[in-house]
Design goal:
By secondary structure, the protein is of the alpha/beta class. The protein has 3 domains: 87 residues, Nucleic acid-binding proteins (OB fold (Dihydrolipoamide Acetyltransferase, E2P), Beta Barrel), CATH 2.40.50; 162 residues, Rossmann fold, CATH 3.40.50.300; 39 residues, Ribonucleotide Reductase Protein R1, domain 1. Helices cover 35% and strands 22% of the residues. It contains 11 helices and 15 strands. The protein has a 6-stranded mixed sheet, sandwiched between helices. The longest helix is centred in the last third of the chain and has 45 residues. The two termini are 41 Å apart. About 2% of the residues have low confidence. Bound molecules: guanosine-5'-triphosphate, magnesium ion and zinc ion. Zinc ion (ZN) binds next to helix 10. The site of magnesium ion has 5 residues, from helix 7 and strand 13.
């Protein structure tokens, strides 16, 4: 592949992608990164310019699930027209990581949050938003996608130092190895520590509830953005500025940062790596359970239940673990059933199309 320009390398197209892109047919196509997703169009960057893009029909119609479509952070193959001012996306290259969540409500499908993220900043504000159980849910989602989590605790200006330290200790009490950083956009404290975490060619994303200060942080870090517009925000019904769509921004230091709208509902963990990676002490204890397939709910000789009983694991953390485990089992089951149905439906359509062709 001779089309790997310094421009796209600077955007993060590193060795992993070169090794995993497979034998791509680059005839007439170029590699570009999706930096924003609108309702029916995309903004790509080819390493030099922002270009608006649309999907080729084939990709749109063959997609069995939103997973098959491009999202922010994706690397795509695109054809460029009109002196590089417009493009058509032909294919999505393999992803190093994919952040997704269940679509809200009962429907079983995914909504993509971002692709090819190296580090996720999970932001909770130190005042009203601080919640260990929600933190655990975010961690499960992030670890599920094999992304490194870092916890940013915002609005430190609203609390006394002692209370801030207490909250950090609460997290470290249950997850000793987590990287936790308190900061304030208002007083600009801790921002240098956040900046020190950012490395060129790496992609970071901001996750967390609405109103915790993600976009404000992004604006503090931007200083002089290398490309793209101001962050796009709209007023909600209460007149507050909220982020309405995801976009990737390249910072002066060379790191890429993706801002996200606040996520209301988390769930739909499809595999257990995230849960096991977040509740490591429970995984370790299960080794000591009497039965190999212990579900830690009511079994005799369960080491986890024993640890809850003697206070080694808090009741709330245990309940959160069981809840997510159940959701994961249920979700996995219904998701695979849906996938199977979709595939059968796809086959049916193909057969019908074939018949139609033959009749012509
Ligand atoms: N006291 C204090 N307020 C802050 C701080 N950072 C942000 N805010 C305020 O919190 C409110 C929400 O900030 P945003 O940056 O829009 O929050 P967000 O996380 O991007 O919210 P969504 O886009 O809805 O997901 C704004 O009124 C900010 O001024 C901070 O460090 N301290
Ligand atoms: Mg925002
Ligand atoms: Zn057990």
């Amino acid at each position: 592949m001779d089309k790997i320009t310094n421009g796209i390398k600077a955007l993060g197209f590193g060795k992993w992608f070169q090794d995993n892109a497979g034998p791509v047919d680059l005839e007439g196509l170029d590699i570009a990164r999706v930096i924003a997703v609108h309702k029916e169009s995309y903004i790509l960057n080819d390493g030099e310019n922002d270009v608006s893009a649309e999907l080729i029909g084939k990709l749109l119609f063959s997609a069995a699930s939103p997973i098959d479509l491009p999202t922010v952070g994706d690397w795509v193959l695109a054809a460029f027209y009109d002196k590089g001012t417009f493009s058509i996306i032909h294919d999505v290259l393999p992803r190093k990581s994919l952040l997704k969540r269940k679509t809200p409500g009962k429907r079983v499908d995914f909504q993509l949050i971002a692709a090819n993220i190296d580090v996720a900043f999970i932001v909770q504000s130190l005042d009203t938003d601080f919640n260990l159980r929600r933190l655990e849910r975010y961690l499960v989602m992030v670890k599920d996608s094999h992304i490194e989590p870092i916890i940013l605790l915002s609005k430190s200006d609203l609390l006394k130092t002692k209370d801030i330290n207490d909250r950090v200790a609460e997290i470290h009490n249950i997850m000793p190895f987590l990287h936790v950083l308190p900061f304030s956009n208002e007083k600009e404290t801790g921002l240098k520590d956040v900046r020190d975490l950012l490395a060129p060619q790496k992609t970071y994303c901001l996750l967390g509830s609405s109103g915790v200060g993600k976009t404000t942080l992004l604006n503090r870090l931007i200083g002089d953005a290398v490309f793209t517009t101001r962050t796009v925000r709209e007023k909600d019904s209460k007149g507050r500025h909220v982020t309405t769509y995801r976009q990737l921004i390249k910072l002066e230091c060379g790191a890429m940062l993706i801002d996200n709208p606040g996520i209301r509902e988390l769930g739909g963990f499809s595999v257990e790596t995230g849960i096991d990676g977040t509740f490591t002490e429970i995984v370790e204890l299960s080794e000591l359970c009497q039965f190999n397939d212990c579900t830690h709910v009511n079994e005799k000789g369960c080491a986890v239940l024993k640890a809850v009983k003697n206070g080694q694991i808090s009741e709330e953390r245990y309940q959160n673990y069981i809840k997510m485990k159940k959701e994961s089992d249920y979700y996995e089951m219904s998701y695979f059933e849906k996938r199977k149905r979709d595939k059968q439906f796809g086959k049916l359509i193909k057969t019908l199309m074939k018949h139609k062709k033959e009749q012509r």
